[in-house]
Write a structure and sequence with these properties.
By secondary structure, this protein is mostly helical. Helices cover 62% and strands 0% of the residues.
Length: 101
Amino acid sequence: MKRLKKENYQKRELSKDEKRKRYQRLKQSAVPGFGLAVKVLGPRKEDIEFAMRLLKKNIKNSKLMNEYYERQEFIKPSAKKREMKSRAKMKQRLQTLAENE
């Protein structure tokens, strides 16, 4: 499958039938009771790629990786507060700069 350049790419509207088929495929690939698990629907390469995309999307939406990275090392509560304050200051500076322009 040849990929189009972003400027040439236009999202096409899906018909009701196509939307229904896509929704059914998503429902079939879900594994009830196993949270992020995804079922591969067939032996074709497209089925495996679909399952991989769906798994990546599920992991990203669950914010599992964010929690993993946060728990890799302990950060003292005072350091967290300091970081939050510095971010708030930076955000405030950017807002005032945007207002002054």
